[in-house]
User: Fold this.
Amino acid sequence: MMNLDCIGSISYWINILRPETENIFTNHTFQKQSSLSQFEIVASNGRQKLSIPTVKKTRKGAYKEVHIDYSTNWQAEQWRSIEIAYLKSPFYLYYGYKIEAVFKTQHTCVLHLNLALFHEIYTCIKADQKINIDDATSIYYTETAVVVHQAYPQVFDDKISFESNLSILDLLFNLGPETKEYLMRSQQMNPYH
Assistant:
């Protein structure tokens, strides 16, 4: 059972590509300060959490009814953080503009943004597993289990130690077309997560 996260961590994507993962559920209550609206990147000073701002009065309802708050220019600010963090990565130029186009589109709801990001990332990593987005089945929201990952080159690895389980953007911008292979290899190393 998987939920539709915002961009998704590396662990999340390892689990998405498991053969037994067929359904991603969206019919549950929204959890503030969760992976539904947050993701982490690594900047020159270490981990940085980015959050999609939501309209307060819609937060206590269903995930699909939580609206994005556009009262600030958060998209430009957050994309600038991503750009500063990954511009020097080997594959930012190949994938960054694709993710940026989705990220900067004004989606009404968090769910719509997450769906669009999911589909773009799924395409970028060349995943081919059949996934069903289930909006009808009610479930409880659950976070994805954390998996220990093998180190890979990161932009600031000359300044800071390897940071694991960041958003999939870190892996995509640093490994590019090898992203799917890394995720599949990680599945084999962690068969019970």
Observations:
- The chain has six helices and five strands.
- The mean pLDDT is 87.
- Helices lie at 10-16, 74-86, 92-103, 110-124, 168-175, 179-189.
